[in-house]
Amino acid sequence: MADRPTIMVTRLLPPPGPELMEQYFEVRGNREDRCMTREEMLAEVAGVDALLTLLTDRVDVDVLEAAGPSLRVVSNCAVGFDNIDVEEATRRNILVATTPGVLTDATAELTWALILSACRRVVEGDVMVRSGEFVGWTPTLLLGMELKGRVLGVVGMGRIGRAVAERAEAFGMTVLYTRRSGPLPPDSIPRGAEWQHTDSLRWLLATADVVSIHLPLSETTHHLLGRRELGLMKKGSVLINTSRGAVIDERALVDALREGPLRAAGLDVYEQEPRVAAGLVEAKNVVLLPHVGSATNETRGRMAKMAVMNARAAVCGESVPHAVNADKIR
Question: Is 273 a catalytic residue?
Answer without folding.
Answer: yes
